[in-house]
Amino acid sequence: MALDIFLCPCMSLQQGVKILAIIDAVLSTLGVVLYTLALIVLLADSEDLDLPTDEKTVGVFIIALAIFIAILQILLAFRLYYGGVNRDSRNCRIWLIISVVIITVIGICFIVNVSTRRFDEYYGAGSVIGLVYKIYEMLVVSSFIKQLGTEMTIGAY
Questions:
Q1: Cα(1)–Cα(147) distance, integer angstroms
Q2: Is 3 part of any domain?
Q3: Above 60 in pLDDT, residue 73?
């Protein structure tokens, strides 16, 4: 219980989960917009960028994949919000499992980019901030799921 208070000192875990779900939805929506703009620029100005066809194809694939993941994260944020509002541990658990997969992929990409020196300071700082935020978010949701489990166990007696 002490960890629960430490994670969300000014509000309940339920309220914290709802706020984090809203933040996720907003950030993911912003991601969809930015990735879509990047895709438009890549497709419209490909001759000005002097990119070989194979690099352009890889770029389009990566941006399309990023758009898909951002849309998936929007849907997951709605699921998390629903789980927070209705105190539904199943929806929160689904969000948590998929977030573990996402953070694992982000962590692997970060390690690969650091080891191959294929990033600048901004990318590195942004990745670290994103990883820390996602880990914090997962701790809050995990604590909320545990709290719901404890309440159900106490309510069963």
A1: 8
A2: no
A3: yes
